[in-house]
Amino acid sequence: MKRTLSLLALVASLSAGAENLAPAGTLSSSLAAWAGTAVANPASSVQQFTLRNGMQLIVQPDRRAPTAVHMLWVRVGAMDEVDGTTGVAHVLEHMMFKGSEQLAPGEFSRRVAALGGQENAFTNRDYTGYYQQIPADRLRDVMVLEADRFAHNQWPDSEFTKEIEVVKEERRMRTEDNPRSMLFEQLFATVYQSNPYRRPVVGWMSDLDAMTADDVRQFHRQWYVPAKAAVVVAGDVDVAQVRAWAEETYGQIPARAAPVSKPREEPRQIGLRRIEVKQPAEQAFVAMAYRVPAIRKVQDLEASDKDALALLVLSAVLDGYDGARLERALVQGKDRVADSAGSSAGVLGRGPAVFTLTGVPAKGKTPAQLEQALRAQVQRIAKEGIQSAELERVKTQWMASQVYERDSVMGQAQSLGNYWVMEMPVNADELLLQQLMQVSAADVQRVAGRYFGNDQLTIGTLVPQPRAAGQARPAAAPASAQMH
C-alpha cells in the first residue's frame, strides 16, 4: 500500500474539473485566513513523549468513534540495507508475523482478529510500519502484543524457508511480471549511482535467493532498537492512560545503542542518462526523472526547502486535478500525443528527491514525441508562468485535504508517523500548509526554469515486446511500498 502524506494529496485527489477554476482573487481571503491560523490554532491536540528507553510515543485523541489506531514505526527501510542483502527490511516485516518468545507463528494475527481488530504492515525505502485498528477498549492488548514481537521476534528456520518463497513470488508478481514496474526499478537504479534509493524495496532476486534466516535475525537485532522506533496512537483514548500503558509495555524494552548509517551522498549528475527497458507490453511508456531538492525543514526554511515546495505546486498545476495542464494539452483533443500523462514531485523522504514526468504515447505517436511534449509543458511555465487561478486551485485542494484527513483516525496516525520518520514536528502538516500558502506564481515559474535541464535528467522508455502465446496481461502497477 502506498503511504500518501496529506502534503501530497492535492496532487492526486480532490479533483473537480478544470472548468471550475475560480477567477483570480476570489479565494484569496480564505487562503490568507488559513495561512494565518494554521499554526496558531492547530486542529489537533497531539502530544509527544519520550519513554524511558528512548522510544517515542505520539498520541492523537479523537473521540468521535469508539475506535483506535495503534501503529509502530521503525525508522529503517530499504535505504538502510547493504549490498548483498537487499530486501531484508521487507523480509523482516514478513517474519515479524511468524512468532516471538510468547507466540507461535501466525498467533499474533489470530489474537488481533479475536480482539475485533484489523492489522497489517508495510515497508518502503524510509521506514517499516505495523498497525492495528481495534475497539478503543482493546488498545492495551495490542500494545502488549506489538511490544513483545518488537523486542522478541523469534521463529524457526523452517518458517523463513517458507516465507522467503512468498516474498520471491511477490517480486515476480509485482515487479518482474509488470512492465512498468520493471521500468521504474531500472530507472531508479540509473538515477542513483551511490545512494541506496537505487535499490528496490522488495530486493534483487539474486539477493533473495542468497538470503539466510540469520541475515534477517541480524537486521532485527541491529535496527529494531527503541531509539529507532515510535508508537503512534490515534482515536478514542486518554493521553495519560496511553502513556502509562506505553511505559508498562514498550518502556520495559532495554535501551540499546542505535546504529548510524553512512551518508552515501549522491554525486552530482553531469549529463543526461537514458535507458530502454524491453518487456512484453501493448504500449510504450515514458518516465523522465529530474534530480531536485527535497524538503528537509518545515521551519526556518532553507532556499532548497522553498524550491521543493514550489516544485510540489508545479506538479499539482501540471497534474493535480481533472483537466490540469498535462491532460488538457497532451491527452484531450484530436491532436493529442498521449493516452495518459502525469507528474509527481517526490520531495518528502529521508533520501534524495526526484520530479517525474510520465506518459503513454497515443496511437501513431512515438515516445520521442511524447517526451518533447512533456518537456514543452514545463518550458511553457518557465517562460510564461502560471495563472493565479491555478495557484489558488491547488492551494485550496491542499487545504481541503488537511480537513478530510482529520476525518480518519488512520489518516491522522499515518501522517504523524510519516512526519516522525522525517524528523519533523507533530504539527508538520500545519507548518507545511502555512509555507505552501506563501508559494507564489513567480516561485513556480522560477523552479520550472531551474531544475529541468538535461544534466539533471534520466529518461526511461518501455519498449513493448510481443507477448508469448498464452501469456497473461500483468496487473496494474503496484504501489511503491511493500505490504505484508
UniProtKB/TrEMBL annotation:
Gene3D superfamilies associated with the record: Metalloenzyme, LuxS/M16 peptidase-like
UniProt cofactor(s): Zn(2+)
Region annotation (Disordered) ranges: 465-484
Name this polypeptide is given: Peptidase M16
UniProt GO BP: proteolysis
Phylogenetic placement of the source organism: Bacteria, Pseudomonadati, Pseudomonadota, Betaproteobacteria, Burkholderiales
Keyword Nucleus found: no
A Pfam family it matches: Peptidase_M16
GO molecular function: metal ion binding; metalloendopeptidase activity
